[in-house]
Amino acid sequence: MKEQIEQLMRTAFEQNASDLHLTVGVPPVLRINGELSYHGEEALKPRDTEGMARALVSEPLWKMFEKRGELDFSHGIRGVSRFRINMYFQRSCVSLAIRTIPTEIPSLESIHMPKVLEDIASKPQGLILVTGPTGSGKSTTLASMIDYINRHHNRHIITLEDPIEYLHTHNKSIIDQREIGFDTQNFANGLRSSLRQDPDIILVGEMRDLETISTAITAAETGHLVFGTLHTTNAPATIDRIIDVFPASQQPQVRIQLAGVLGAVVSQRLFKTASGSGRRAATEILINNSAVKNLIRNEKIHQVPTVMQTNKAAGMHTLEMDVEALLNEGVISEEAAQPYIRNEGS
Question: What NCBIfam families would the database entry show (predicted)?
Fold first, then answer.
């Protein structure tokens, strides 16, 4: 069974599929350039998916999976690639969602990220948030930013990931990568203990709860550069999400803290290119300046988009502005861009 699933993973890698889905009742499914397509004609049976899942994990992990109903882990095939895997039960059968992780960490330039991300990555301290829906390329952007730091700056970087995706090697920086569930219990514990490990930079794979968010803000306040991700769709929603996690009585103080530590918010979406040959990220970038600080402190987050629109020279822009630029350049189609562009007449 291990041979069978690894062959499917090889196929996904060779066909440049971002994801491979194995679920009972249909053949294996590949996601290529955002589109789903069947691989083969033979539908998978319950014994197939369970056998393949069991082949990838140890007995203790399988018991943990049976208890929890889902499990995140990574798997590497020598000479091919690494894969991020989530296996879960659905209708009492095992399903697997497998994400292909590129073998090399792409540069910010190669993934067409704005030049300002290099400046953001070079900040000495603060909170940098990379946001977007699942599958929008957040992990890749963060890995590219960490790689940029690694190649240009002398830093001690600690990452907390669930699971570890891109493997970094020490260059100018020292990078310690910790996997949730293996190297540390959870994000909150890992983040708290990282403050005692003399870091310059901390990457928090996901800021899911009050304790993690609170500790991340404290870490940024105490002179660290903290990177984190959230599943929010734009910069204003990101600021609101951070504040709304806290009880109402704490929110005025959190506004003041966040206004002080926020470095930047990078929100992104992936769009299929007009040629159909790949996908391209559109971004929204907010850099915290005196105007943004005042808006955060005074609960005027709804005015943040205006600041982004009028500070293009400082590297800021809204998602709509970037989508329009990509459309005008012919990179993405009008059909893909339309939901993100407001019509003047409407």
Answer: pilT_fam
